[in-house]
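Need tokens for this chain, all 120 residues.
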Amino acid sequence: KLKKNGFRTRIVLEKAFLEKFPDQKDFLEKLYAQKKLNPIFHLRPIVELANLYPREVMLKVFELSHQYNTFSCHFIRGLLEKEAPTEAAPEPRAGTLWSFPAIQVNADLSAYQKLMEVKS
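Here are the structure tokens for all 120 residues:
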């Protein structure tokens, strides 16, 4: 029931989520209500993040999610980055949605801009 890089179905994702957080059925219901068109898009990365962060941190984030009434994976990830101390933040595993390092580029990109203008 696994795709190359994750869970395939809503049922499998929901089961994985509830095995870790049996007391968070309300969170799932609200995520499904808010993200009716594609709840899997949001649930899959939340399950992946739950494999990376401690349970206590995830529960705190779920509580904040309820307070703000926002249940997207982007909001959850942002809260985790804010709530978890940098040194305690886990290293992303290869193949997860968040496996690319965040870097800031300070290079002069004007040469690329000129290339784009020539092609237009």
